[in-house]
Sequence to fold (661 residues):
Amino acid sequence: MQSRGLFQVIVSLTVGALFAVTAQGQEPKPATAETRKANAAVLKALPFKDQQDFKDIKRGFIEALPNKGMIKNSSGETVWDLSAYEFADGKPAPDTVNPSLWRQLQLLSEAGLYQVAPGIYQVRGADLSNITFIEGDRGVIVMDPLISAETARVGLDLYRKHRGNKPVLGVIYTHSHIDHYGGVRGIVDEKDVKSGKVKVIAPEGFVEEAVSENVFAGNHMSRRASFMYGNLIPKDPKGSLGTGLGLGTSTGNVTLIAPTDVISKNGQTVDVDGLTFEFMLAPGSEAPSEMHFYIPQLKAVSAAENANHTLHNLYTLRGAKVRNARAWSSYLHDTIERWGDRAEVLFGPHHWPTWGNRNVVNHLKKQRDLYKYLNDQTLRMANHGYNMVETAEMMELPPELADYWANRGYYGSVNHDTRAVWNYYLGFFDGNPARLYPLPPAAAGKKFVEYMGGADNVLKRAKRDYDAGNYRWVAQVLDQLVSAEPNNQVARNLLADTLEQLGYQQENGPWRNFFLSGAKELREGVKKLPVPVTASPDTIRNMPIEMFFDYQAIRLNGKKAAGKNLAFNIELPDVDQRYSLVLENGVLNYGKPVDKPDATVTTNRASLNDIMLGTATMQDKITDGSAKVSGDTDALNTFLAMLDTFEFWWNLVTPNPPPKS
Fold:
């Protein structure tokens, strides 16, 4: 029942930026002539003369972040460093960067305390997200307190420096992603929440979604997140430029305080410190649990993370459930219908606000129609018989959407969002039976290379196509060769060079990070860098016990469990809960206690939390008396031996060895 990897799954994935590159590797290559040509073409294709965003990003500026945006924890470790992106300040885009992504980086690098409108202030650039302060009669309501307690505290201190020591009387979590609640203990004390002094407001399903997302498949997701967020590559013109949604993710103390007020229906209102908040639910959009709101007294609306200055992800490259583009669009339409005639400012937990009723409505419409277009046109082409890849290749936004800067694909992309819509409705199979039962990459790669005349011939032809700038094709071909011969360093190096040039050309931050991270791994191999050991007790404490049992069922090795029939009762006297775990048919189920278990485990939920965090094993708890086992101890040990642990540093760009049975 040991769950050492569970905490690592939750924290390493949801925080995202957990690894520091310590090994010195090969130097990145310069941009090729083809890459320079591709990036130069972007300057001619997009309306770079439009400088309104650069005016808006500075509007209401009060003061920059202290210490050049470097934030440390109580141990003196840096958890956020804005200064790492100073290389882009006031400079034209280098030829290793898509000029549109460079523009977004420069906008996101503007940071500090800003007045959004009378009574609304934001600290931007202190984490992946913004922290917003909404002033009431006596105190302040905080929206989305960042990822880490340390960064949220710096934001609150900077706000109070200019607006006085106003007490926090309310917290709003707009949705269930960690960058919108993780810093809550940096701004409020839980005892004030329990006493009723502070309201914590969240949409229905918030706690379940906040705790559950990315746990069950989390080891896989977190490994990919190390590529998506560019955590394994340096921050410079040949490395990571952030994510397009924000610069990066802080690595401080992740916390969670459960909500006191749950929004369960559209039109529900909550009064906090003299202000009325009107809420609208938006489930299944950017997050499974999300909501928009309007403040009549301030004529201010927030569409949470459903209206941004980028095309967002309908499918995130770290891996997650596909999001519903049609529903996303409909929520923005409903926001316009409800509050569009009254809103004078639109603000959100990412990027900069939009001012003026006409501009607010226009922005909401452009974002609404962006997702509606992708949804509708994907289905139109699918109904003509085009498969997922063909549809994505053909998808092109109309100029009125494509030339609107806030619709550019800095975080999501038109290509992978189109594939997301196709997959949402139609799944992985495109209907062609030749693609129904393919060989796995290693086996297929060997046959492809054999058919293409061997590795030397593949490399010769690939080098010719690389010199011609046919990088997408070279990547496809060399993927086959590297899959067939993962130790062929010549092939790995040429594939790395190819991915690097593809990365340099990307407008999308995560695509750039994936390509450049893949190039680094091909050249240097998988670097097993330190995984943080700092726990997030709040997350574990709020995890339903049923979810913990579900996770153990995922860890169960089906081959080892085949033919075994075991039953255990689990008693948690401190929370007055009793369950059974029953193993049969190679599957683990939980339910009510059974009459004749093989063994009964009695322990407190707090001790189980330690096991879930990986700070102790079941045997540790039995030894120190925190857990008691009655019945067949050998049966329990047999069961525990069937639970897999997950290796984090599996290969992303070469085949992995067969799993151990």
Notes: The longest helix spans residues 357-383. The CA atoms of residues 333 and 368 lie 6 Å apart. The first strand starts at residue 61 and ends at 63.
